[in-house]
C-alpha cells in the first residue's frame, strides 16, 4: 500500500483563556495548543480522528511544512490519502500536548506569574491532563465524538484513557505498541535517561534557560539510551552489523575506530539534544511511568474497560521489547473479559518499538482495513 | 453455507456471547451476527484470514490455539465453537478441556477419518487418503490428529463430557440416511454439541 502525501501543511495555534485544573491539583491559568489537521471535516463532524503522540512526538504527524523539508511528519507512512488513516475519508487532528516543546504550552513557555520560562516549575502532568486539554480543542472545533482516537506507545495510553474518561465521545480506540502500565524495567530505563539529564552540569535544577544554556550532553545520552531500547537486537544487527564508520583493524595500525552503530547513536543524540527540551523529556517520561490505566478501578483492568463503550484495535510488534506483545495481550485479555469488541494483530517486524512508525506491509493492510471499517460503520 | 455451519446455528441463542476458535475468514461469526445478533469473537493464527475478518468488521484476536486458552476467563462465553480445527491441534484433548472451561457450552466439528472412503483408500491402496476433501499429503498436512466419530465418542466418555446433541453431515442423500445408523462409516463431518 503506498498512498499519497497530504502535501504542504501549516500548523495552527489555539489559545485557551479558561484556566484548567490539572490532575496534580495545580491550575494552568491559560495555555495554547499547536495542532495540524489533514483532510476535511464532514458536515455532521463525524469523521474526526485524533492522533495522540508518544514521548518525543508532536503535532507534525504528516506532510511537509515546506517544499525543502527533508523529512515528512513522524507518522507520514500511515496518514494521507489512501493510507491506513485515509485523509480522503477522515479529518485527522494531531496536536502537540501541553508540557511539550514544539509550540504548545510547556516548560519552555513563559510563566505569566514570573515572566520567566516555567522550566522545572511547570506542573507535573498525567495522561488525563492531555486528554482533558485535547478535549478542549475538540469542543472548540465543534466535534462531539471522535470516529477514532489513535496512538502508539504513550499515545496508546492516552487513547485508552480517552475511552474510559469520555466513553460516549470515542467510537473506536486504536492502541499500538502500548501497555496498561510500565514494567519496573521500563521505568528503570526512563530513570537512567532522566539521571543522564539531571546530572549534566548545565541542568541547573531545571532552570537552565535562565542560565542561557541547555543540558546538551545529558539529553544526548538520554536519547541514546532511549533509542537503543526502541530498536531490536536483530534490527540493529541488520541495519548496522559490525560495520565501521571509521578506521580499520589492520595489525600494526593504531587508528581511531568507530562502529556505524556508534556514529548513528551520536547522530540521533545530537539532533535530539538540539531540538528537544530537557524538562519536557523528564515530564513526559514521568507521565509515562505514572500511567496505570486500572489504578482508580481497584487495579482491575477488566473493571476499567467495562466503563468503555467503543471498539478497540490493538497492535503489537514481535521484536518490540519495551512494549512487547505480552503487554498488548494484557490489554486484549482485559477487553475480552470486559466483553468489549476488540481485534488484535501481532505484527512480525524487525525494528523493535520503532516498528509502529515504519513501513510494514501487513501492519499497513490490517490498520487500513480496520480504519475502512470505522469509515463504513459511521460516516 | 457449509452444512455443518448451518446446523450449528440452531444451537446458538440470540444475543449470546460466542467464541470461535480458528474462525477463518469470519464467515460463521458474520452469519451469527446477522441471524442471532451474537456478540462474537474469533481467534485465528493465519494473517490472511485475520485480514478477512477485519475487513468484515468481525472482532478477531491473533492467537495460537496450541498455546492454550489460559488468557480466557472461566465461563466467560455462552458458546465456544471450533469448526474443522480439532485435527490441526498438537494436543486436541487439552484444547477441548479448555473450551469446556471457558464456555458454558461448546460445539466441535471435525472430519470423520472413519468414513468408508478413507478406509477403502487405506486398505486398497495402502496409502494415506488424499481427496478433494483432504487435499494434503501426509508430510505437509496441517491435519496432524485425525480421529473418527467413535474415537471422539470414546474421548467424551473418558472425560465425562456431556454430548447434548450430535449431527452427521454426509456426502449425499443416500449416505445421509446411512449415517443415521452408521455414523462412523458414513459421516463426512461430525458436529457435536457438548458441555461439562
- Number of strand elements of chain B: 7
Task: Give the low-confidence spans of chain A.
Answer: none
* Helix run count of chain A: 10
Distance between the first and last residues' Cα of chain A: 23 Å
The radius of gyration computed from the alpha-carbon positions of chain B, rounded to a whole number of angstroms, is 17 Å
Q: What is the CATH architecture annotation of the largest domain in chain A?
A: 3-Layer(aba) Sandwich
Shape of chain B: globular
Largest sheet of chain A: 8 strands, mixed
- DSSP E strands of chain A, number: 16
CA gyration radius of chain A, whole angstroms: 21 Å
3D shape of chain A: globular
CATH class of chain B: Alpha Beta
Number of helices of chain B: 8
CATH C-level class of the largest domain in chain A is Alpha Beta
Provide the residue-averaged pLDDT of chain A: 96
Detailed description of the structure:
The complex is a heterodimer of chains A (about 375) and B (about 200). Chain A is about 35% helix and about 15% strand. Chain A has 10 helices and 16 strands. Chain A has helices spanning about 125-140, 155-165, 185-200, 215-230, 235-240, 260-275, 280-290, 300-305, 325-335, 360-379; strands spanning about 10-15, 20, 25-30, 30-40, 50, 80, 85, 90-95, 110, 115, 150, 170-175, 245, 260, 310-315, 340-345. In chain A, a hairpin with a 4-residue loop joins strand 9 and strand 10. In chain A, helix 1 (about 125-140) crosses helix 2 (about 155-165) and helix 3 packs antiparallel against helix 4 (about 215-230). Chain B has a single domain, classed as Vaccinia Virus protein VP39 (Rossmann fold, 3-Layer(aba) Sandwich), CATH 3.40.50. Chain B has helices at about 5-10, 25-35, 45-55, 90-100, 115-125, 150-160, 175-180, 185; strands at about 15-20, 40-45, 60, 75-85, 105-110, 160-170, 190-195. Chain B is globular and about 45 Å long. Classes of the chains: A alpha/beta (about 375), B alpha/beta (about 200). At the A-B interface, helix 9, strand 16 and helix 10 of A face helix 3 and strand 3 of B.
Amino acid at each position: 500500500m503506498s498512498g499519497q502525501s497530504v502535501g504542504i501543511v501549516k500548523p495552527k495555534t489555539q489559545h485557551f483563556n479558561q484556566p484548567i485544573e490539572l490532575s496534580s491539583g495545580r491550575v494552568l491559568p491559560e495555555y495554547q495548543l499547536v495542532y495540524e489537521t489533514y483532510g476535511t471535516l464532514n458536515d455532521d463532524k463525524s469523521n474526526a480522528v485524533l492522533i495522540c503522540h508518544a514521548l518525543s512526538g508532536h503535532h507534525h504527524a504528516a506532510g511537509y511544512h515546506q517544499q525543502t523539508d527533508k523529512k515528512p511528519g513522524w507518522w507520514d507512512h500511515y496518514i494521507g490519502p489512501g493510507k491506513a488513516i485515509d485523509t480522503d475519508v477522515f479529518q485527522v487532528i494531531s496536536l502537540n500536548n501541553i508540557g511539550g516543546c514544539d509550540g504548545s504550552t510547556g516548560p519552555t513557555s513563559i510563566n505569566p506569574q514570573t515572566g520567566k520560562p516555567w522550566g522545572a516549575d511547570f506542573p507535573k502532568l498525567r495522561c488525563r491532563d492531555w486528554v482533558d486539554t485535547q478535549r478542549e480543542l475538540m469542543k472548540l472545533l465543534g466535534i462531539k465524538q471522535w470516529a477514532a482516537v489513535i496512538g502508539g506507545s504513550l499515545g496508546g495510553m492516552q487513547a485508552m484513557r480517552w475511552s474510559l474518561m469520555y466513553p460516549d465521545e470515542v467510537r473506536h480506540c486504536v492502541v499500538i505498541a502500548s501497555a496498561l502500565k510500565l514494567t519496573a524495567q521500563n521505568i528503570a530505563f526512563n530513570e537512567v535517561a532522566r539521571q543522564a539529564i539531571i546530572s549534566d552540569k548545565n541542568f541547573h535544577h531545571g532552570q537552565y534557560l535562565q542560565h542561557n544554556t541547555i543540558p546538551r550532553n545529558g539529553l544526548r545520552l538520554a536519547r541514546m539510551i532511549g533509542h537503543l531500547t526502541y530498536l531490536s537486537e536483530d534490527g540493529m544487527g541488520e541495519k548496522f552489523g559490525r560495520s565501521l564508520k571509521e578506521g580499520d583493524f589492520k595489525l600494526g595500525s593504531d587508528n581511531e575506530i568507530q562502529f556505524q552503530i556508534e556514529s548513528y547513536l551520536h547522530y540521533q543524540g545530537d539532533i535530539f539534544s538540539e531540538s528537544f527540551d530537557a524538562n519536557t523529556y523528564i515530564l513526559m517520561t514521568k507521565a509515562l511511568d505514572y500511567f496505570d490505566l486500572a489504578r482508580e478501578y481497584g487495579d482491575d483492568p477488566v473493571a476499567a474497560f467495562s466503563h468503555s463503550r467503543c471498539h478497540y484495535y490493538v497492535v503489537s510488534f514481535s521484536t518490540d521489547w519495551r512494549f512487547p506483545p505480552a503487554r498488548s495481550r494484557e490489554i486484549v485479555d482485559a477487553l475480552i473479559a470486559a466483553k468489549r469488541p476488540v481485534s488484535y494483530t501481532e505484527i512480525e517486524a524487525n525494528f523493535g518499538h520503532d516498528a509502529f512508525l515504519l513501513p510494514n506491509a501487513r501492519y499497513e493492510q490490517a490498520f487500513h482495513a480496520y480504519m475502512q471499517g470505522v469509515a463504513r460503520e459511521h460516516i | 453455507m457449509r452444512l455443518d455451519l448451518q446446523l450449528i446455528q440452531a444451537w446458538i441463542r440470540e444475543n449470546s456471547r460466542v467464541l470461535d476458535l480458528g474462525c477463518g475468514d469470519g464467515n460463521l461469526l458474520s452469519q451469527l451476527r446477522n441471524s442471532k445478533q451474537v456478540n462474537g469473537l474469533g481467534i485465528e493464527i493465519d494473517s490472511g484470514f485475520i485480514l478477512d475478518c477485519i475487513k468484515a468488521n468481525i472482532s478477531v484476536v491473533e492467537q495460537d490455539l496450541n498455546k492454550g486458552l489460559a488468557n480466557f476467563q472461566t465461563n466467560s462465553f455462552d458458546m465456544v465453537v471450533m469448526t474443522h480445527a480439532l485435527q490441526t491441534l498438537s494436543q486436541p484433548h487439552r484444547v477441548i478441556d479448555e473450551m469446556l472451561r471457558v464456555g458454558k457450552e461448546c460445539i466441535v466439528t471435525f472430519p470423520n477419518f472413519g468414513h468408508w472412503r478413507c478406509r477403502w483408500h487405506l486398505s486398497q491402496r495402502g496409502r494415506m487418503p488424499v481427496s478433494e476433501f483432504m487435499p494434503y499429503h501426509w508430510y505437509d498436512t496441517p491435519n496432524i490428529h485425525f480421529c473418527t466419530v467413535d474415537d471422539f465418542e470414546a474421548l467424551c466418555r473418558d472425560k465425562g463430557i456431556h454430548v447434548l446433541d450430535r449431527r452427521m453431515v454426509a456426502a449425499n442423500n443416500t449416505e445421509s440416511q446411512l449415517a443415521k445408523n452408521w455414523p462412523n462409516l458414513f459421516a463426512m463431518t461430525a458436529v457435536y454439541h457438548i458441555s461439562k
